[in-house]
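Pilot study result, target chain (139 residues):
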Amino acid sequence: MDLRGTRTREDPEINFIPLIDVLLVILIFLMVTTTYQRVAELQITLPEADADQVKQRPKEINVGVDAQGRYVIDRTVLSFTTVAALADALKGAAGDAKDPVVVINADANATHQSVIHVMEAARAAGVIHITFATQAPAR
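Predicted structure:
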């Protein structure tokens, strides 16, 4: 006995076109009803810059020391006699500048004692800021 009959069974089909139509309507509805905040509505406090003020650079006193122990202060060659004479020359080069900086340009072959004389003279002259100039090695 054949209870199923001779009818052929069809596979169910899923039709996506109505589903896509419904999703597009929902998407359009959400796009129309949504409100967007603008970035301009944010309260941002930006930093301010004052270009009129120029940072005051301290006066630089360039002291050169060569390999023979000669000293040059701001392109003036000195005949070194004592540390006190070098201190007087540093005071004269500083003038009435507030907190001058002594930049020591020492030759690579200058003696250590020559550089120490400049540092001691700067201390005696009341200059507390001392720095050393360096040179990058040649490639």
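One observation from the pilot: Residues 60-132 form a domain with the Nucleotidyltransferase; domain 5 fold (CATH 3.30.420.270). A full batch analysis is planned for the follow-on phase.
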